[in-house]
Amino acid sequence: MALKEQELVENYNTHPNSLLSLAVKVSVKQESITEINSNSVVLTNVGNGNYWIIYDIDINYWLLPKANLRIDRYRYETVKLLFDCDDYEIEYDSFKLDKPAQVSMLDNQSEWKLEKRGVLKFTNTLKPPHTNQKESNKEQPVESVKSSVNSLAYSEWLDGYNNNPQLLEKEAIKVLETTNSINRNRAGISQQIVLEVATKSNYWVVYDNKNNNCWLFFKNSMRISEYRYQTLKYLFDCYDYQPDYSSFVLLKPTKLISLATEDRKWIVEELGILKFIS
Question: In which domain, by residue range, is 117 found?
């Protein structure tokens, strides 16, 4: 079923998950951004992408944020390349799609080029406190995420990870990326990373007993080399990563779903967030 543009906007704003079966999941191809303009932005087919591409009855390709995408300060740096976001503030309630962005398919049929930016309208009733601009730029993103985490399902696990990781490790299922999914991604074949139970593990899976959600943490002593980062970026949004970073803060664990076809294996439903500190 193909939709006209206005139908697409109305469905997205009222029942966005109804569009999931029609969507191709994509992410911005970072190496394509050589200049900040629409001629250089390319999106590629990625199973856990933050954006959806849907075509209409006239074979136009429309780009939308995925349903319930949280647009924090860091993610906004990418979103603003694709959409006009004039009302955006760090502390916002929600946004509505005013107009989807328009893209065109490239010859390889797995990538799309941005042709025209869309428009997002934000509703902001929660205003950040007035602070010194220098202090705000440094502290606001991390603190705003931390303060909002207290009401979320994973907050207790996150506190445990930051304060007593050994205890969390005892409660967790030890997992590791499957070799096949890593190799396919590094070969340029778009596929979600699959995690499976392993004795020697880099990651911990824990279940939230309240909502039966599944969360992914990584071993707190794990060193994230450039090589390991090439896999990690498919599991977490990695803000400010540099090969010579000194530390990082886990702002949000990754949300997983069980792989329907195989027991005791998981894929990403929603990326977590890591903030690296140089």
Answer: 5-123
